[in-house]
Amino acid sequence: MINxxxxxxxxGRQYIPDxxxxxxxxxxxxxxVISSISADEKEIAACCPTGxxxxxxxxxxxxxxxxxxxxxxxxxxxxTFTRDYKIASNRRDRLVIKEGIDEAVRLDPEEIRMEISRSxxxxxxxRQVSAGGDNSNELELNACGNVNFDMGRFGxxxxxxxxxxxxxxxxxxxSENMEEPLQICYDAIPDPKIIILAGVDAISGxxxxxxxxxxxxxxxxYKIDLYIPGNPVHPLTFINGVLELVTLRKFKTFGxxx
Amino acid sequence: xxxxxxxxxxxxxxxxxxxxxxxxxxxxxxxxxxxxxxxCVNYYGHRAGNKIRLICCMASDMEMMIYVSSSLxxxxxxxxxxxxxxxxxxxxxxxxxxNFGISYIDHPWLKPVRYAFDxxxxxxxxxxxxxxxxxxxxxxxxxxxxxxxxxIEPGHFRFMCNGEQILHLEIQLGYQHRGIERLFxxxxxxLSRTVLAESIAGDTVAGHTAAFVNLWEGLCGYQSDEGxxxxxxxxxxxxRVAVHTGDMSALCTDIAWQLGSSVYGRLRTPVINFFQSxxxxxxxxxxxxxxxxxxxxxxxLKEELLKIFEEFLPAFHQxxxxxxxxxxxxxxxxxxxxxxxxxxxxxxxxxxxARMCGIRRDIRLSHPHDLYPVLGHxxxxxxxxxxxxxxxxxxxxxxxxxxxxxxxxxxxxxVNHDGRNWKxxxxxxxxxxxxxxxWRGEICHCAITGENGRLVHYKIKDPSFHNWxxxxxxxxxxxxxxxxxxxxxFNLSHCGHDL
Lengths: 258, 499
Description:
heterodimer, A: alpha/beta, 3-stranded antiparallel sheet, 9 helices, B: alpha+beta, 17 helices, 41% helix
């Protein structure tokens, strides 16, 4: 008992108090910014391993970006990765960062289904499915619940059974061999339910785009409620993205705005 | 004996590898595998015209050599198997059979490995896996997965039980198959391949990326600089510290020791955050590149890391002491999930799994690369083969790795190539093997280049490929409720296996 208390005492305070404004240490590669200085657009686009850079106008699609940072290294004045980790959105097009734009990525409140705001504001239980995920996103999603990030304090948790869940978090490019289990898991979740894609592989296939071993038909069938870019997603990106999804849209019950 | 002796990361012309009659090929490799110091690091096939060329790489744990030989066969002709003589070839031959439709006349367990998209028989589907069946009045089966109760990768576990006791566990994998080996050929530039290497197993980014870049630089005839060697070695050891600490946390979670779980868990955080400070990514994606060192270690970073260890070590020692004292911890860890040294040797176990039951097998010692020759590594060995041995070996390896990190950071080299002199042009007609001791164990990448140095074949072997069978053997006669802690104590990779 005494020993346990001694150990506890040594740890001090581990949790991040302000999850919305915490600064990430070091040189995190978060939201990219493309400056307006002139550069050879074709050359920039050609250096990207996942085809995330488009031209006219020059843009980076965070849903395709593997965040390797090579473009910023070759064209330092043109492209920089900021430490802004709030890069999740419920609209796929908002993940595309265009030349000269340096604004925070937000969710579109109009696109958030009313049932999400009504049902999941105070409590959201998620079932995670790794469908060809490389275990990096899985590690970071686990980290969301550790003593540092402590996502549970917001009522957001991962649960064991799809029957207990309000939604599904998919990681990985969706391998052909996982297509059926993913569908079974999704079908087992009671309505209303949400779909979150976590990480570049899930959003676009990432480096696996075009592989004959992946099959992404599942995604064409349903509305995706949240895209969380990253390779892997940073726990702060995930937590802030999900929090915004469940709290951003205001709604009225019995005439009271909540 | 007719083979070519190859060194780690030193390419040889593909013509220099002898092509033997299958019978001679079999006999020779069985003799090599019979020596306790040798084990098979890779055995695979690739198409050569209308035939299949089998390539077998036997590594010595003592002599820094890999003995490579090959054989050309027809896929239509049934063959006698290696497995009948040595169980360590079991998985390799199953893979060859699955990919090329070769039938072995005496393989005891010829089942699909991963249902690869380019398997010989597309009609065989993952939902139709032929499980071992047994019947009895007091026995039952428990099927778990592919989707499990936590945030982990998918795989199916079929337990055959007598009451609470596991008689046999069959592990079916393949759900994570993404066609990586084919993508290595199809991707036409180095950066794409490097990003791909980082995605083989996202928990072993430094391990697999180091294996790839060392192989690639070797094929290009390029000698990497001291700064890059430091980056790779430091990345590998730091990854070991981080993942081992996280695993110790997970082991405590599985026995419901909340304090240990939280403390080990939070100790991992500053270590992976250091990766972010260093290279912008908590899991070291982006850190290791061929032909250049994007993130040379600076004096500032060194101080930051030393400070992290200064805080890490006392807290680590304190909680370790408590873990080794608490009866509730020891009673769950000790004598649970035992893998004997004999079993480990028989199945060709590698890495931590081999070392925790007394086998001195470690690439850092036997085929050292980067800065390992200077470190004079001596592997940590345990002998009991139970969950507690796997817990202890992690604890000791963490301490050892921190020691190594401090040592290699004493002299930060000034030479750091920024990639200006580097040309990614592999030599034509070469074969090369790259071995790296990742935190799980031995990673092996093999490449063959064709005309103009174009990559024509790429083969990856994660340590999990050998070690999944170790888990199945270790849980026999254990309670099914001890499976989670056994599984976590091995912490094997699904995606590294499925590729």
